[in-house]
Amino acid sequence: MPDSRAKTKATAKPAAKAKIGVYWAASCGGCDCALLEVNEQILDVAAAADILLWPCAADAKYSDLRGYKNGEIDLVLFNGAIRTEENREIAELIREKTKYLAAFGSCAHTGGVIGLANLSSREEIFSRVYGAEENWPQLEVSQNGETLHLPEFLTTLTPLDAVVDVDYYVPGCPPPAGVVSDLFSALVTGDLPPTGTVFASSKNLCDECPREREQLKITKILRPHEQEPDPDKCLLDQGFICMGPATRGGCGAVCPKANMPCTGCAGPTANIEDQGAAMLNTLASLVGTGEEGEDQLEAEDAILAQIDDIVGTFYRFSSATTLLKGRYHERNATR
Amino acid sequence: MSDTNGPFEPRIVAFLCRWCSYAGADLAGVSRMQYPPNVIPMRVNCSGRVDAEMVMKALEKGADGVLIGGCHPGDCHYVSGNYKTRRRVILLKRALSEIGIDPRRVHLEWISASEGGKFKETITSYVELIRQLGPSPIRLAQAEEASVEVPQEVSQGAVSDAG
After folding, report:
1. Using the beta-carbon criterion (under 8 Å), do B95 and A309 form an inter-chain contact?
2. Going from the N-terminus, what domains does chain A have, and what CATH number goes with each?
């Protein structure tokens, strides 16, 4: 994570025409679309930089990538998590070939939604997706004298910085246009910030949310499909679980402005290590009947019981980077 | 509390509130009460100071159980810190349960400054419970990754499936 990394000024200005790349690992493709959300600015980027690698939009082979000199590419925006052996291998290769590597989007930054797969074993995932074991993908398939090799499915999914050093982090699912625009401006002017920079706010989302906070106690937990939220009041005040207090700002509170609670895609703020734990603390302090006392305990328990799926809600985008990684199988865990 | 020699000895981190539980521990000490030496006490100003992240960090760093001691309801020096911690522990236990960890590895107990005896009883019974549960699965997973052996031998009368 950026805080533990020595911050050095990125001095090497890109040459007359910068060489950049975009890569997707375990990703949905949304991050690639998000790059185009900057509209015409993409033309400035195309004028200022040669795009050497972009599997989603341009035809370049891994052999081309292997052919570049070490450090030849100036910047690679890497989206998607490390799910397969191929993801890891290409991440390592890209790290060799590029000066600056940016973890672009939630999956590369904190593991993203797909990090929740770490709560299930490889076998459970395969059974769910492919059904009977005979349908599971084989690492080697031979047909007509040709052999096809498939990359291995790793036992745990990790964010990018678990396998290689990362210079920049661009959070968000997908990163918002404003943030992408800042990154492109830095690239086009050749003025990249110190390594370790996170392209987002260092404060939490509430700092930029326009909703009015009344410091109410949460007496009832609501889910977005149960009731239309009041568009002007704090979502937490109304009982909707909004991840704002534990989430890094920088997106301009787009979800709360669209009357939806924040789901925490930008990951934890600079001062937090474990996003879910921070949200758990926040919510435990907010839940209550309005009075504190021994006679209120039963009522409090009833409110807490309305919170469903704690890990899936509080760690929706960060379960791959939580302090207590992965899934355990202790007897009596669910008693 | 060596990792490699002898049978499994639980490692327990106890966060004790300064006004009640830590004073209770002091009383147990000056009264020469005997209790197992498996607990690392951490004094905090209030049980409400115990962040969920602190508990998780203790588990991540190798604790087999985490005990939180606070003032009895109504007695909190800061009026309502212990109620906040109580709600936090309820959610935390559920989160642990969801990722497959026995929620009893986190335990909240009200111990007042005059309850040296209760402190002793709590430590004794909690150490025994954790001894029966065995080493924390987090510690085992980390040890496996680092190829270190953790003694797993559980004392006589190991916990049954019914717990």
Report:
1. no
2. 2-116+154-189 (3.40.50.700), 124-149 (no CATH), 205-321 (no CATH)
